[in-house]
Amino acid sequence: MLNPFRFSAALLTLLPLAFASTPILAxxxxxxxxxxxxxxxxxxYHAEIDLPVTAGPLTLTTPQWIPGTHQPYGPAQxxxxxxxxxNGQTIPWRRDDVDLYQFHLTIPQGVTTLHxxxxxxxxxxxxQKLAVLEWEKLLLYPxxxxxxxxxxxxxxxxxxxxxxxxxxTPLVNGPAPAAGTITRxxxxxxxxxxxxxxxxxxxxxxxxxxxEIAPRHxxxxxxxAPEDSNLRPSVLAELNNLVREADALYxxxxxxxxxxxxxxxxxAGGEGLEHGQSSDNGVGEKxxxxxxxxxxxxxxxxxxxxxxxxxxxxxxxxxxxxxFATPQQGALLWVYEGMTQYxxxxxxxxxxxxxxxxxxxxxxxxxxxxxxxxxxEWRPTSDTAVAASLLRGGNSTWQNWKRGQDYYWEGELLWLxxxxxxxxxxxxxxxxxxxxxxxxxxxxxxxxLIVPYxxxxxxxxxxxxxxxxxxxxxxxxxxxxxxxxxxxxxERGGYKLVYKDKPSASERVLAAGSRxxxxxxxxxxxxxxxxxxxxGDVRWNGPADKARLAPGEKIIAVDGKIFSTEALRAAxxxxxxGTEPIHLIVQADSFVSTAEIDYHxxxxxAVLERVDGTPAYLDDITKPLTKPEKAPAxxxxxxE
Length: 640
Ligand SMILES: [Zn+2]
Known about the structure:
Number of helices: 21
Bound molecules: zinc ion
């Protein structure tokens, strides 16, 4: 059956109609949901849900396609203990034979409220000291109804003494709730509730950011150890800068207030999931403890923050469906994620979360890695977006001959290309910043809502900044086979991608801060290799591939010595300019054999090199737009 709520192409061209995605709350009383996280340390979340019903057949569903994950990743497998009751009687249920996310029930005469209990087994983003609630884990609501039209009123119970961070609006403002009590939040709709996660933990902090900017911004942190969630003054100064820089770049907001939600834990794991009024971020426990760790995470918060504009407010039409059951279509992910990848890194540099030099080092890595991905000879970037749900996750075996979610990094190079082109065509008077104000600021400041767009609107908005054949520009770079990475933006920006025999300063900092360093020999012999000699991937058609090495094998010895990354590095160096191959002993499953890599060009590490006498647009792009705030200690030092 055709879904009448699906956007038609005609409707999408009419922005005022698209704005109708403002919450429309049905006349029925809202669903009441209480999330009970008091058992979170035992990996169980509980929900008590009261649904307004009428007698007759009823189909309820749990979410399947979760916005931002770009794949059908709903919690159906983890839901357990489902019991329906009404007027003191248990109501039987039956799962749908085809859509396994759906429950069918028959509501007896005289029943107006159905109670549902369910538990969700949660094994990630939860520890003894903290928990993250993405509401889709506990949601159950009528199927075949647009989720923005289902009214719901959430409540939350957390372990005694744990603080709560969320963009939801508490019904009662005041001191933190007493131990064991329930916090009630204002009614919203199922679409917005799914978009409003919660973090809670024993070691909770809420830091206001850039207080002069309206609406308000906060970073809420939880961690396993008390010191980790108490962020350094320098990090808070950089996050103040981030809020100011985003304000200057985008010139609009689409939220009532914004909360960066951040877990710092080696147990809870990494995360970066965008929401309209918040973001769910997870880093290691020392993620922001020092500059080396911070460099690894430099673009995380700017990236997820940018999604509030690009991805949440403005969303590709195919990625915005009326419910969480209709498959999302990823064709324009090179805008949703690719442009966010570009802007997130630019904002990281502008706000001081990384330096301009570090930005260039990371960009060199990105470009070189994409350039050394032979799968680009058969698969265009557009296909990595369309097939995103197939490519997400997975392991590294022959990844370079398959491609991953390359639309992120291809998008970064593409939008740098567009930015420098606009700067060149306008004598550096205009830039992609001007485009963002148009494209991401339609309607001015708004509350949280979703306004879908098409490829044609993107092209029209680019033309409004600088007339050009943008449709062909985008088509050539995204939809065609391009065997080489797009380095035009870097070169027009005054820098050239080159290979040196020593890693960049940033690469050395990252390696020093990493537990499992391995050796970066991807651009030389073509191997991803761990500290213990395990081969993660082999570059298709590279020197190690020609030596018949394979992912999953393990190098035991190099040139007669037991394997170590230093021994392999020394072998690559000593083979340079000679004729003698690098001799290896390799373990494959339970067999051992020898291999010879015929490679003589030495170590190769990607860096950007300034091309003298050309405009340095790349440096203009990463310069702050606002006056940067220094951390108190640094400001004091500078004043002395
Ligand atoms: Zn993203």
